[in-house]
Amino acid sequence: MSTEALHRLVVNGDVCGSGLLGWRAKLRMREAMYEVFEAGFTAAGIAEGAYHMEDRGDGVLVALAPDVPSAQLVGPWLEGVYQKLRQVNEGRLEPLRMRVAMHAGSVAQDAKGLAGRAVDLTCRLCDSGTARSVMQLADRAPLLFVVSDALYHDVVAEGGACIEPEHYRRARVSEKETDVEAWFHVPRLPIPPLPAQTSHEAPPSPAVPARDRPCATGVRAVPDPPPEQGGGAGHGGTVPPPASGPVEEGAAAGAGPAPAPYVHKYKIEHVGGDQQNFRDNTINTNGGFVGINKAAAPARTPAPGPPADDAPHTGPAPEGGDR
């Protein structure tokens, strides 16, 4: 076997909480773990001879053949793993939960197994304190996916089948000699719940819009809050209309356009200090009119015909009457 290092994609999977299991439960866990990984390879159309797999007790280490596209693992393989996890967890009192990490780089392989910095980094991303914290925060999620910064920008950010870069977030991983940035993703969550001390940088816009990608999960990304508007209605600013919820993908056609936002008919302008102008009337915000528009309102044209008996008197007031 050649020991020359080749550029390969490395995958490391680890089961959460396996140390609490008895040996019988651990054997059942290992069986389910391998079923999950193999279901991913089937979903991605990757033949058994196209990858090398090593047992790690409560985890698995895999290196793909150099000619296997990384996008097949980041997309269809990951989706297959997630779906199989959901299936094996049906009826389980303690659901199987996994952390999975990926990185690509130079990998050497000898009779004993895999070696190289790419292997080391992948395993540290998977076993990092940041990854463990995310799984504790997302305590109902069966799967966490972590990719290196390089793999994110080279593969994930480009989008593709079952790849949703808008749902990834970046955070720092500091383990042993490793101090790097990595990207975290919890399938079916808009954003992963990262620990407070890590960064939460949103990813750039994906190269392929979500609506044009197959395997879309239907999860909508949470947009960043809009910038603050300058001032409120009482200070010459404008009040933004209430935000409507996002339109779900696959909504029925012909539902009609969204209602137009409310537009104020009259503009309130800031004059100075506590004074504002409304329809040419100057108002003090602490109470009272300062200047009143004395222009007479336009006269109304009366309707044709004799006035009704109870119509108000519109002629001049009689002498001695109230004025």
TrEMBL record:
Protein name: Guanylate cyclase domain-containing protein
Residue numbers spanned by region Disordered: 192-258, 295-323
InterPro entries, per database record: Nucleotide_cyclase
SUPFAM superfamilies assigned to the protein according to its UniProt record, in alphabetical order: Nucleotide cyclase
Organism of provenance: Streptomyces paromomycinus
Compositional bias (Low complexity): 245-257
